[in-house]
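retry 2 of 3: previous attempt timed out while embedding manganese (II) ion. Reduced batch size to 1 and resubmitted. Inputs unchanged:
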Amino acid sequence: MEKLTNNKSILDWVQTRIDLLQPDKVVWIDGSKEQIQALKDEAVSTGEFIKLNEEKLPDCYFHRTNPNDVARVEDRTFICTPTKEEAGPLNNWMDPDEAYKMCDDIIRGSYKGKTMYVIPYSMCKVGSPFAKYGLEVTDSIYVVCNMNIITRIGQRVLDAIGPDSTDWIKGTHASCNSDPEKRYINQWPQDNTIYSVNSCYGGNVLQGKKCFALRIASNLARQEGWQAEHMLILGIEYPNGETKYLTAAFPSACGKTNLAMLVPPKHYVDKGYKVWCVGDDISWIRKGPDGRLYAVNPEYGFFGVAPGTNMQSNPNALLSCRSGSSIFTNVARNLDDNTFWWEGMPDAPENGEDWLGNPWNGKTSTEKGAYPNSRFTAPAKNCPCLSSEFENPNGVPVSAFVFGGRRAKLAPLVYQARNWQHGVFVGAAMGSETTAAAQGQKVGVVRHDPMAMRPFIGYDCGTYLQHWLDMGKKIDEDKQPKIFNVNWFRKDDEGHFMWPGFGDNLRVLLWIMDRCEGKVDAVETPIGYLPKPEDIDIDGLDVTVDDVKAMLTVDKALWREEADGIEEFFKSLGDTVPQELYDELATLRANVAE
Ligand code: GTP
Ligand code: SPV
Ligand code: MN
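retry 2 succeeded.
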């Protein structure tokens, strides 16, 4: 085995992995094109990958996971802190020593006959002030190739860690036999350690993403005074050439990738507006030298929801994965030309194969071709609207934080919080209808999901909310991002979405930005500041001012019910919930009282 570092802490740890997992062979991932290509070829030869049409989809591959392993498993995700209180009531908890023992017993010897790949990876640009490094050992080429797309990997990472540092995250992935009863996604925040056991699904095993960049990082962020959030980052370029940035937190499968890459409506394009994507899922946020908050995207690619992505809804995402070097997981295939297909794309193949590998006629079948949580993995560099600031080591200044979720009835299209503390309450009280992004829960049920971080806070939720309040106190009021809530998913009585969404969401973002600059008035309501209906531009839409009015109604009776739900939720979080949030709840109650 050719080692790529002399760092003793790394070599010692890799040796413990070899002793435990007992691979036949160890391969260090240097990240070279040749090495990655050889791995792809090997995966094709074993059937792990299917190579797609090289002319139409250069360097693109298809992969199927075990049908029992198609989304994150929140009920099998554990935070292993010395005490249960540190993990808090929203996380599953396991005693750290017991968790090691249990996982080690499951994975011991599971690499026999296999190769261990050692992936050095970086979250954020290598060597940049925000960067943090990790190593993940895996027995899956699929994991190596995906990590190569969504993180920065290889020799340069080991060089950046250097010969002496012990400041890196230790990650162990073992595919085992995909036994759902023995599947564990465990984080030990005190040890900066991650285990992914008996899974090969992205969010469980591409450890840079949710395990590290959110669960482990949120814990580091609290200690070090910054924030790790489940937020997209986008820039709006105005016709005068100025660009303003916002970040937005929506729960899984609630529209982050779509918003991050939105294409402005035609009359905005004609006027010279542009939207630039900095990130579509995760933000690391710090106070900059000028006292404002700055956000970076620690990832290097996109792991996006496939179904619903098309040239109308999100052309930039489709172009990102079509232009090459992408991986498609659990989608359907068109066997005539060996390309991918999923719901929401035109021309369902007659001669197709569904995500399970069964013959599938998209013209006649009533079954879905692609799994609802099927995904594409695409390099950020492929994205036509990638921001020039994507690799800016210092990040971009944040003007607004936007929260949102799927609420058929309650939340208006957009509203603004009265101040930071109220904004933290709005984020803390967020609820959203559940989606297919997590296994083992009913889809479409409203659940509380503070800051869209419920499955990703690596410590106690009440303490996390306190950290949000503390961050606000560190920033002068005039430099604090303004906080908003949006709801693209409000439905009319017939169950249709009331707002066209997607590119037209820019119309709402422009109101948000105008509010940040004090350029537009608002209506004060019991829940915060709402737009005057005529201030949301509907030019060119099949929507009237009355429709907008209907999307902006605040139904006090519904909000009274909501307040009860929020109180119950806060109580379930225990006594670490900051008093300030109960004060905000009391204000809401008073405002919506009969
Ligand atoms: P994760 O990758 O799981 O974190 O998801 P995400 O938040 O990035 O969600 P994504 O943008 O992939 O969207 C998920 C689903 O929501 C897709 O099926 C979209 O078609 C749908 N969606 C996104 N934006 C809108 C919108 O503005 N309106 C409506 N009606 N649907 C939307
Ligand atoms: C999410 O579920 O929020 C995702 C996909 O972004 S996963 O990587 O599976 O977490
Ligand atoms: Mn996500």
